[in-house]
UniProtKB/TrEMBL annotation:
This is isochorismate synthase. Pfam families: Chorismate_bind (PF00425). Residues 88-348 form the Chorismate-utilising enzyme C-terminal domain. Its EC number is 5.4.4.2. Keywords: Isomerase. Transmembrane segments: none annotated. GO terms for molecular function: isochorismate synthase activity. It catalyses: chorismate = isochorismate. It comes from Rhodococcus globerulus. Belongs to the isochorismate synthase family. It comes from the Bacteria. InterPro entries: ADC_synthase, Anth_synth_I-like, Chorismate_C, IsoChor_synthase.
Amino acid sequence: MDGFVLSRPDHSVLTRGVRRSFDDAGAATHALSEGSATLIVGALPFDPSGATALYEPAEVTVTGSAWRSDTSVDLPHTHAVREIPSPADHLRRVEKLVTRLRDGDLGKVVSARTVELRAESPISPTALAARMATLNPAANTFAVDLSAAGTDFVGHSLVGATPEVLVSRRGNVVTCRPLAGSARRTAETEADRVAGDSLLSSTKNLAEHAFVTDWIRDVLGPLCSELSIPSTPELTSTHEVWHLASPIRGILRDPTTALELAIALHPTPALCGTPTTAALNVIRDTEEPRRFYGGAVGWCNNVGDGDWVVAIRCAEISADGRTAWASAGGGIVADSDPQDELDETTTKLRTLLTALGVSDTN
Ligand SMILES: C=C(O[C@@H]1C=C(C(=O)O)C=C[C@H]1O)C(=O)O
């Protein structure tokens, strides 16, 4: 795809064309600080050792409202062809993780799985993003070309509608809104409310969430003169799931840019685990590479302001547009129930599958 879309409920950043691309976040940060680029957009991979897909765009449009696509392209008939790993294997993997977590050397590890989809004709990343923006108006919808990350990614794109904001910076104000702790929503209003209320009082989910706020405190604390992190999270929801969310706000001591903040915060325990390096190693050893799923998508300008959202509820689309890989995961702790965790990934996958008209795979 040509261009980049990040549509948030109250503004959007759209770009076309590429002046320069960066497979390394340090080079992009340098281009901003030396003044040779005025804006960087793109994606950071899940694994911080991987190549980035960052760009200095040729043309930029910023709007004061969510993006509304002016083209209407139909999405092709699409169906699931493969699950990586199979649901049974994911279940076994989570069971093993729970045993390991009970041994106590790790606090939390996020475990994810992928559904491979085949389309009858090419999926247009922009059309899919437009559909996702319409279906999920409260989410942050994105579409980003991954070509800059190297030969494995040429022509691939990442499209999704995420409820999670990694970090935003406006002047010296930094905000984050991590999510961790989830419960499936139901169609029946009273049962749905009960599901939300019990999430809010679930010791297991509150512990899962606290790993994330503790990490953000550790990273942002030294960079901020003031930092406000609520002592208990609030409830938020997508169509499919309830989540625990923490609105965090800080005042930066020094002019750290939004891109630098994103690099420092990523990967949070919402997508990786605790302790970070040990959890990352478990994910490297047990999963297929996540590529850009679980990474971050966003923009940063030469003043240092920007937004980076967490790349979840998304799919990578192949260069020919006929294959898509949708991924979803969930935080595993010592008292996680493996079947509930598998069901949670199935529920989270629905954000992407519904947009492509694919029904549940299990
Ligand atoms: C990993 C995903 O979601 C993350 C994990 C969550 C959890 O474990 O409860 C909640 C929101 C996200 O931070 C995903 O959607 O794929």
